[in-house]
Each structure stands twice: as structure tokens, then as C-alpha cells.
Write a structure and sequence with these properties.
The protein is mainly α and about 160 residues long. It contains six helices and no strands. The protein has helices at about 5-25, 30-60, 65-85, 95-125, 130-150, 155-160. It is elongated. The model has no long low-confidence stretch (mean pLDDT about 95).
């Protein structure tokens, strides 16, 4: 994948990686537990970076709907809860695990689709390339900082969810 600093492209790259990880988590031939660990870190780091660095900046643009941005934050909370539910299942590949995985897939896929159609298209149309690159650098820095801090650990996800 080409190296980009555009925040829209960086977010889209994360969304595509999450889709790849969903496929691995569904595959009996893959290391499903490892895919879940990578997914957990990516989802939490991605959401925290969006909420800290991207969403507040996008709310300043009059052609980007603040309600969509706030709805995106709410959907992050739903995704985090679904992630925690899956992380807390004891047996990878069990019926319960598969069920919780599908709930997670549904929550995250719904959010990514909606975010791409509303917030990201709005950013593409209304935010100058240079500003999107500045936001991309801030997003990537925060995302990497979160990943280094093991943000996808079950204890951290519990803390975020508040359970």
C-alpha cells in the first residue's frame, strides 16, 4: 500500500485491515486468537485516535455534520462493548465465540460503512489536502502511541467500556 498521510486514506486503510482480520477470525485454518489480538489493538487505537485528533477538528467544518461525528463516537462505544464481549469468551472458535464475533463484525462494519459515507466523504470534499495530511500525521501518531501501550488488552477495553 502506498504511504499516505491523508487522514481519510489512513482511516480507510485501517477499515480494510479490520475486514481482513474479520476474515481470519472466521477461518478455522487461521490463528484466530492472534487475529483477535491484532484486531483489538487496531480497533481501540483507531477509535481513540479518531476521537482525540480527527473528530474534534472535523467538527469545525460547516459542511461536516456534527451529529454524524457524535454518532460515530457513540458507535465506537458500541464496538468497544462488542469487542469486550468477544475478548471475554474463554474458548476461541466455540459457538459463543462465533456468535460474539458476528455481533462485533456487525457493529464495526455498520460504523465503518456509515463513517465512510458521511464523515470521510465530507472530509474529502471540504477539508484541504494539506489539512487532511496534518490530521493524518496526528491520527497516526496517536494511533501508534495507543498500540505501543497495548490498548487492546482486555483490561484496557474493560476500562474503556466501564465494566
Amino acid at each position: 500500500m502506498a504511504e499516505t498521510r491523508d487522514v481519510v486514506e489512513l482511516i480507510l486503510q485501517d477499515h480494510r485491515r479490520m475486514e481482513d482480520l474479520f476474515r481470519l477470525m472466521r477461518s478455522v485454518e487461521a490463528d484466530r486468537a492472534a487475529a483477535l489480538q491484532e484486531f483489538a489493538g487496531l480497533l481501540i487505537a483507531h477509535a481513540v485516535a479518531e476521537e482525540a485528533k480527527v473528530y474534534p477538528a472535523l467538527k469545525r467544518y460547516k459542511n461536516i455534520d456534527d451529529e454524524e461525528v457524535e454518532h460515530g463516537e457513540h458507535e465506537h462505544d458500541e464496538g468497544n462493548k462488542a469487542l469486550l464481549d468477544l475478548l471475554e469468551v474463554e474458548e476461541v472458535g466455540s459457538e459463543e465465540w462465533d456468535s460474539k464475533l458476528e455481533e462485533l463484525v456487525e457493529a464495526v462494519t455498520h460504523h465503518a460503512d456509515e463513517e465512510e459515507r458521511t464523515i470521510l466523504n465530507g472530509a474529502r470534499e471540504n477539508v484541504a489536502t494539506e489539512r487532511r495530511e496534518e490530521l493524518g500525521a496526528a491520527f497516526q501518531e496517536e494511533r501508534d502511541r495507543q498500540l505501543e501501550a497495548d490498548c487492546g488488552s482486555v483490561d484496557n477495553v474493560r476500562r474503556l467500556v466501564g465494566s
